[in-house]
């Protein structure tokens, strides 16, 4: 397992639980603040913030004296999206800061993931929307996250998969490989545009090519030829 760092915003809900879980498990964790370092908002999270100073840190682009204005929370989301390899949305209404962060992360070429929720649950509407629009990969467990980020596992180390020396492609697979070979990484949408396949067709083709060891999935839901 690679070194893992948790980045969030020290807010109520999932944010503070993520920071506290990281601290409890010995992982570094950083909070990106929407105000100066002369205050902690919300103040109830001050003790957690103090712990984070020695096991991660507090980051801000604002001078001391800057109050936690609503607009600052939106602007700081670009920093969280930029310094993280991946963004995982646990809960979100159909509008909110989490969706803004996910959109920015996607524009940066970062991996975006979302945990699905019940249909009709207002606090899962944003996650379901991201998944439905193919803007986020569906995650239901830690194992899903490990696979999406291509993190090595003990079983993978014990039984390394080697690509076929001369793989036999179908005509459809060969078209995908040929397009990817001329690029340093393409998104699913860009690949669909250049190959003429639908996203559903590409999902099956890319899965098979990954299993063959010919194609590698990169952060940001982009693909390239392996090697």
Automatic annotation (TrEMBL):
Domain DprA winged helix, first and last residues per copy: 159-221
Query: What InterPro entries has UniProt attached to this entry?
Result: DprA (IPR003488), DprA_WH (IPR041614), DrpA_SLOG (IPR057666), WH-like_DNA-bd_sf (IPR036388), WH_DNA-bd_sf (IPR036390)
- For the Smf/DprA SLOG domain, which residue ranges apply? 3-149
One matching Pfam family: DNA_processg_A
The GO annotation for biological process reads: DNA-mediated transformation
* Family as reported in the entry's similarity comment: Belongs to the DprA/Smf family.
Protein's name according to its UniProt entry:
Smf protein DNA processing chain A
Source species:
gut metagenome
């Amino acid at each position: 397992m690679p070194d893992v760092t948790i980045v969030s915003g020290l807010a109520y809900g999932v944010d503070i639980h993520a920071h506290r879980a990281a601290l409890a498990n010995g992982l570094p964790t950083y909070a990106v603040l929407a105000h100066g370092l002369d205050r902690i908002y919300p103040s109830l999270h001050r003790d957690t913030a103090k712990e984070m100073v020695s096991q991660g840190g507090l980051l801000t682009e604002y001078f001391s004296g800057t109050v936690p204005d609503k607009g600052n929370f939106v602007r700081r989301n670009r920093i969280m999206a930029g310094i993280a390899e991946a963004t995982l949305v646990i809960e979100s209404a159909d509008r909110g800061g989490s969706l803004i962060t996910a959109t920015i992360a996607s524009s940066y070429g970062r991996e975006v993931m979302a945990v699905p929720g019940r249909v009709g649950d207002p606090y899962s509407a944003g996650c379901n929307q991201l998944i439905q629009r193919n803007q986020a990969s569906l995650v239901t467990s830690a194992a899903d996250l490990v696979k999406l980020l291509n993190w090595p596992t003990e079983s993978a180390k014990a039984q390394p998969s080697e690509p076929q020396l001369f793989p036999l492609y179908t005509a459809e697979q060969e078209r995908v490989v040929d397009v990817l070979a001329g690029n340093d990484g393409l998104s699913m949408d860009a690949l669909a545009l250049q190959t003429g396949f639908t996203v559903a067709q590409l999902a099956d083709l890319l899965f098979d090519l990954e299993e063959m060891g010919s194609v590698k999935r990169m952060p940001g839901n982009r693909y390239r030829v392996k090697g």
